[in-house]
Amino acid sequence: MSTARLSDRLSSHQPLVLGLFRIVLGLLFASEGAATLFGILGRQSSPVGDWPFWYAGVIELVCGVLVLLGTATRGAAFLSSGAMAFAYFTEHQKNGLVPLQNGGLSPALFCWGFLLLVFFGPGALSLSGLLQGRGVARSTAGLDAV
Predict the structure, then answer these.
(1) For residue 140, which of 7, 9, 10, 18 has the smallest C-alpha distance?
(2) Whether this model's pTM surpasses 0.70
(3) For a FRET experiment, which of 24, 30, 31, 61 has its CA 20 to 30 Å from that of 54?
């Protein structure tokens, strides 16, 4: 198989893979927020109003669910990316420059993953595409509005 044919075959699956990426990223982010807010999954809950952890948990839970469902994806991803950049630079970078040495690997990966969704949109399998009747063609092309 030539590399051009392989590239074409892989490219034809981009919307679906992007949609699956969005779903997994949203689920992981929402679980971080749920753990912070409700003290589940082996983590202690953050007291209500505790800056910045409780507020970060709210952003993680709400935006994670929005991204998971594929509704308001670009806006939720933008807020999530910014929150993770804030977390990295205020909580982690003071312990070292590189994410592996400062414990900031998760915020760094979340930040860049959400930034990707800001620019590429929700991909396939988004709730906004289904509710607005746009069909698969437009929503998979990454043309969903916020």
Answers:
(1) 18
(2) yes
(3) 24
Alpha-carbon span 126 to 84, nearest angstrom: 23
Find the distance separating the first CA and the last CA of the chain, reported in whole Å. 39
CA 110, chain centre distance (Å): 6
pLDDT digits (tens, 9 = 90+) for 76-111: 999 999 999 999 999 999 999 899 999 999 999 999
CA dihedral defined by 120, 125, 84, 56, rounded to 10 degrees? 150
Tell me what pLDDT residue 3 has. 87
What would the two tokens of residue 48 be? Answer: 């209500």
d(CA 135, CA 35) in angstroms, rounded, equals 35
Task: Tell me the helices (H) and strands (E) count for the chain, helix number first.
Answer: 8, 0
